[in-house]
Amino acid sequence: MTQSEAEALADVVAIFDDQTRFVRAIFSGRRRNMQPDYEKIEFRPIKLKDSMKIQMICNGKTTSKTTNLDFGDSQIQHYLASGFANFLVESTEKSLTLRYTKKGQFAVHVESHQKSQNLSHDRQKSRLLDSNSEFLRQVGISDQQGRVKPTMNDKFLQIEEFLRILMPTLEAEIANNRIPQPTSDNPLKIVDHGCGNAYLTFATHNFLIEKNFYNTVVGIDKREDSRERNAAIAERLAIGDAVSFRAEKISDSVNSAADVAIALHACDTATDDALAWSIKNGAKIILVSPCCHHDLQLQMTKIPDPWHQVTKHGILNQRLGDVLTDALRAQILRFNGYRTDIIEFIGDDHTPRNLMIRAVKTNSPSDPQELASYRDFVKSWNLRPKLAELLNFEH
Ligand SMILES: C[S@@+](CC[C@H](N)C(=O)[O-])C[C@H]1O[C@@H](n2cnc3c(N)ncnc32)[C@H](O)[C@@H]1O
Question: Does the beta carbon of 326 sit less than 6 angstroms from any atom of ligand 1?
Fold first, then answer.
């Protein structure tokens, strides 16, 4: 028997209210002429101390927020009516799929099953990299038994999260024909700026090869000892023709082509060097996670009022300098034809340097108002961002 909309929604609410039956739910999509607060919401039951809660993970375009609700919380009904188009709701004995079509029609599908609740608090994210991979042993992230060394766990998670963002960005650009489908004759060209011990360099190559994306990666670091160590690892892994290393400053690099430019924690203005190199060499995708920032902090000496109320506090001045550095980097990327956003790519418990600048070359023209606003801002604060200097970008 087909359920009516009212019956199906009542059934959904009853499942959400039942601590012993609720398994999981996902709300996604957008109903015609409606705008839900989030792109997607995931719900699942968890046990916290002695009480049962519903964990709600709200995913926006660039953010994710987790809240724990009581069973019976009225927010569920709010989100049910907030404009999502698709609802998957599972209890221990059935799953309901509710859908509002583009024409606004309602459909429901019910299926019987037997599922149990998973009440663990921190469900493991699915792993992208196998800790037992030889390259992870060689770079020193995993031990001989193929376990991630406790001291390397944060770096392991950073490179995984980096890849979690690289992959869909790359797939979208290939689908949009802005990057050709990589082949063995025409592999994707990647450059890793400030590669250090090349954890990300090797991970990117390996991960993409496993996904059948032919690629070559060049790791650049100013340190000759890094180059020697990394090149020896590439030889041992028998991938020296695809993964190579150069000991040179990014700003002096003679390497001159990449579809994708990446940098994980390139120190201070080395991030600006990486961005400038990428813009000048027409990289289609730039993913850069900045490190320490000193450039603008040192220039923030003539701050117009009322900002002295913030900048008179040393630590706030420093944090404001960090924020401004990345905000102006993003603006300059936009003025150079990149669609740019800044996201948190990993929780700050794994690194305080957890922002990523993600830029995709679309060649869209600059917004004149944004450009005027940028000019006014740097003029009134008397700032000359390093990236602007490197690109000789107008003041
Ligand atoms: C904090 S480490 C990060 C290394 C690696 N990306 C990682 O996440 O493990 C920064 C690296 O950038 C290199 N570096 C700093 N400034 C550079 C520059 N201007 N040109 C090339 N390499 C640079 C340093 O030698 C160092 O190895």
Answer: no
